[in-house]
What does this fold into?
Amino acid sequence: MTDERILSRNDTKWPMVGLLGLFLLILVSAAVSADEVPYEPVEVVELGAWRDQGGLGKDLRFDQSPDGERLVLLGYASPHDLRVTDRDLKTLAVLDPPNDNAVVEGMRWSSTGEWVCAWGSADDVDHDLMWVWNGLTYQLSDWLYENFTTPLRQLDSAFFQSHDEILALAGRDENGTSRLLLVETSTSDIRRNIPWEDNATIIRLGTDQMRLVCIDERGTVMGIAGSNWENVDDLGGHDIAPSSDSLGIRTNQPWMVGYEDGSVAIWGGNPAIHERSAYFGPGPIQAISWVFVYRGGDSYYIVGTPGVSGGSTLMTYFYNPDLQPDGPASEPMEYASPVISLVGDSKVEGQVWAGFEDGTLRLFNVTIIPNLPPVITIESPIEWEKYREDFTATGIVTDDHDNIQFVTVIIEGGEGFRADVVGERWTYLVNISNVRRGSVSFHVVTSDGRNETENGTFFVVPWEVGDDDEELPRWFPLIPFTIAIIALTLFYYWRRSNHMKNEGRSQRHS
It folds into this structure.
């Protein structure tokens, strides 16, 4: 084995990134206040709940096959029960390790779905083991390691990368040194052997489809990529212990990590940078998962936090890379048992699987509640009504989510003025002295933060004549125009008559 010590954190790059992030945060905060963040709420519906009839399941963890058709469950019928099921939780195979009194600690589908691997310990072996089953026949295989042993004495996490060409193993060697091994599955050769900084335990492995993501007990997040996995990048972190199963990564950016203190860090971009952090109250973050991407980069994720009665509170939140903070988008859902893991459904967008401490598996469906444009009506001014004195324009404004941001009054296409809004009623005092005489256009515009609605009408400010305040008829401006038309018509026929007479005289003379 080679001894390639992992690089220490860069003490100058990340402070600069932090200052830049703070500057961008100030700009965004100045442009969009917290109560103006536009998002559409979601409805979360539980589609099904499954629990073994024996009731002996515990700490249910699971992984979904790449095609989304099957699940591998750990802890369903008993704490170390390992089985493969379909989407209706019909058991397709029970995977029994061959060793005596085997204790399964973790499991994973391979990235192609061809293999299911699990790791743990057994009474007859003094170090951890890895078992691999064929992902189609569910037959135990010695494809990778003879006697199911690995180069690591203690195995904490495993992950298939690069279409199953690489198997990442995290754990400790015979000397107790924390290491990350990158193994070529075709030959079992070790491509990289990386002793981990500060001898910290790597507790979670994943991928953002570009790099292997490694999270250790300190909260350090490292990314490893390159043609020979030579690029090892510190992606930043919280210097706080991450929650054991709180890694939310989807097939495209961004991705996130949940921590013991109740915070969540979100990464995005390429290369990945730490975009922001959110805080959800006293920790830990029990589990976290992306739900789906909506329009314009808007995304939704679901978070499990400690419940009021010791179980879990599940809540869906809205995320947009250009807006802060992240807003709650659903009503909280309370469960008596803590949630252990959340995984976005790889087959049906908007569905999320959840495993609970009592061995229950639940499936949720998350759908957008459409944010319809607000509706605004005009009660006054009445269309084409005459107004000689100042009057109060009034109307009703409603929105399906009660997110009215403003009502603006625009007269004759001029400057807009904010109307007063109390409940669903808007009012605005129209000063007649500032309005020209004649027919006047009147418009109102309202917004709920995402959609705008406009309504309009006309009213009349009469012309005043003399001291008796006699109103001229509405048709009065037509009189001069009519006289002019008649005069032009008579002049035309007079000219034509003279022209014809002159032509007659010329013919007689000739």
About this structure: Residues 1-37, 466-472 have pLDDT under 50 and may be disordered. The two ends are 128 Å apart (CA to CA). Helices lie at 13-31, 478-509.
